[in-house]
Amino acid sequence: MVVAACRVALRLPENHSLKGKRHVIKSIIARVQNRFSNVSISEIDGQDFWQSASLGIAYVSGEAQHANEVVSKVVGFIENSPMDAELVDYEIEIVHVL
User: Domain limits at 27?
Assistant: First the structure.
């Protein structure tokens, strides 16, 4: 079993409140979940900062290459989606379990 874990750092330059940030982040999470039903995604850090966010993405697979491809597609989807968030950085880690 292989787990692909990814941390995505986002900048929200047009945002001016925590309420606005929640709206943007919930929209991103919903779009990812609709497009990639087997991927887990959640806000993992920076909940008190209104112009930045960190999302955690996880995917379980039988093959490392497949897990990496799926998570990379999610990152590309977030980066290329017309949202009020700018992808600043991301890091993918592949963990072999069992």
Answer: 2-96
Q: How far is CA 34 from CA 16, 45, 71, 97, in A?
A: 27, 22, 15, 27
Q: What's the pLDDT tens digit per position in 17-67?
A: 999 999 999 999 999 999 999 999 999 988 888 899 999 999 999 999 999
User: Of residues 2 and 82, which shows the higher confidence score?
Assistant: 2
Virtual torsion, Cα 70, 74, 79, 85, nearest 10 deg: -160
> How many distinct structural domains can be found in the chain?
1
Q: Residue 73 sits in a domain of what CATH number?
A: 3.30.70.1120
